[in-house]
Amino acid sequence: MLELTKIISAFIVFPGFFVTFFAILAFYFFLKKKKPLKPLRGAWLPILFLSLSVFFYMASSTWFVNLFSKVLYIPDTKDKGDYIVVLGGGIDEYSGSVEVGKHTLRRLYKGYLLYKSKPRKIVVTGGVVSKGIPEAFVMKDVLISFGVPEEDVIVEDKARNTFQNAQYTHSIIGDRPITLVTSVTHMKRSLLSFRKFFKEVYHIQSDVPLDFRNAFLDYIPTYRAFYTFCNIVYELVGILQYAIFKS
């Protein structure tokens, strides 16, 4: 009964609502096609709405997004960097309070585990995109709360994008071997930038894109899968942008 309830609700709330809505429209115009209609409406509207229904289903289903995410996956290397470099993934500001974002927290935890295994300096990099405080300061506080000594944390607080993360980190530590830590979906784009400034870039991924267990929940629409789909598209656009503008 619980499974049935989840399946039904998944097609009523966002984004599953659009799967249902466009499927109903496709069925409606398919039935109307038998009546005298303009050729365009009769032939193309059912196909258009059915395509939109299929698109929203695929883009919000964990099984498909899991497959889609593989285009960005890169196997980890060994951790041989003289420095650990953790890229910021956002902080959350709400009603005057500031918290580390979930993507940033996962990256920091992975950096902390690498530090525990082999202590060395950790560079946290991330500035202010629009307004507020630089995320690097929040990241530093989190690492200190984990137990990393303050003197082992280097703050880079000016970068506003991935290219600047690499550029400004290089201006602080020079061309030294680094172990780069960022999200699975963000790593490919990050390496394009960091390899422009650093000769030796090792990389360890964190913050997996989604939870896929091949259960029934992975085959119904969820907002988490749709969110991840949007992130993947964003990263692909970023890679295309780098290929064109080299920054």
From TrEMBL:
Bilayer-spanning residue ranges: 6-31, 43-65
Gene3D superfamilies according to UniProt: HUPs (3.40.50.620)
GO cellular component: plasma membrane
Source organism, top-level taxon: Bacteria
Residue span, DUF218 domain: 82-238
InterPro entries on file: Cell_Envelope_Assoc, DUF218, Rossmann-like_a/b/a_fold
Source organism of this protein record: Fervidobacterium pennivorans (strain DSM 9078 / Ven5)
Keywords (A to Z) from UniProt: Membrane, Transmembrane, Transmembrane helix
Protein name: DUF218 domain-containing protein
GO biological process: Gram-negative-bacterium-type cell wall biogenesis; peptidoglycan metabolic process
Pfam families xref list: DUF218
